[in-house]
């Protein structure tokens, strides 16, 4: 792995041996990206193309100080847990249809972000794993 700042070869240390920049977060990002890439490659080799696409579409989000904010990926409507579909059915959004859904892993807890639509009106809601709107 090469340093993103100066291009030097990195060692097991969390600092570049050449320029001294902190590369801990950078290494974590690269390793996580490689993990999902390799998982997608393995799935494609066994002809699990939808699984491969899911692995390759995972998105990592970091803030400007390189703190992990979340990891997310698309979820099919028919894969939403029953607790979520029930929460939507029992809410003010019961007349809306699910247009898009994403699953988020985050330090404060995992949740779903669901895009709902009713005619030309669209809204995004967040629901935690227990079915509570957040």
How does this structure look, described?
28% of the residues lie in helices and 27% in strands. The protein has 134 residues and is α+β, with helices and mostly antiparallel strands. It is elongated and about 60 Å long.
Keywords:
5-stranded antiparallel beta sheet; single chain; 134 residues; elongated; alpha+beta; 28% helix; 5 strands
Approximate strand percentage: 25-35%
Percent of residues in helices comes to 25-40%
Which structural category do the helix and sheet elements fall into?
alpha+beta
What separation lies between the terminal Cα atoms? 39 Å
Tally of separate helices: 3
Number of strands: 5
Radius of gyration based on Cα positions: 19 Å
Largest sheet: 5 strands, antiparallel
SSE order, one letter for each helix or strand = HHEEHEEE
Which stretches of 5+ consecutive residues score pLDDT under 50? none
Strand numbers in spatial order across the main sheet? 1-2-3-4-5
Give a brief outline of the structure:
With 134 residues, this protein is α+β, with helices and mostly antiparallel strands. The chain has three helices and five strands. Strand 4 and strand 5 form a beta hairpin.
Task: Give the topology, please.
Elements: H1 24-45, H2 49-56, E1 59-62, E2 68-74, H3 82-89, E3 97-105, E4 111-118, E5 121-128
Antiparallel strand pairs: 1-2, 2-3, 3-4, 4-5
Helix pairs in contact: 1-2
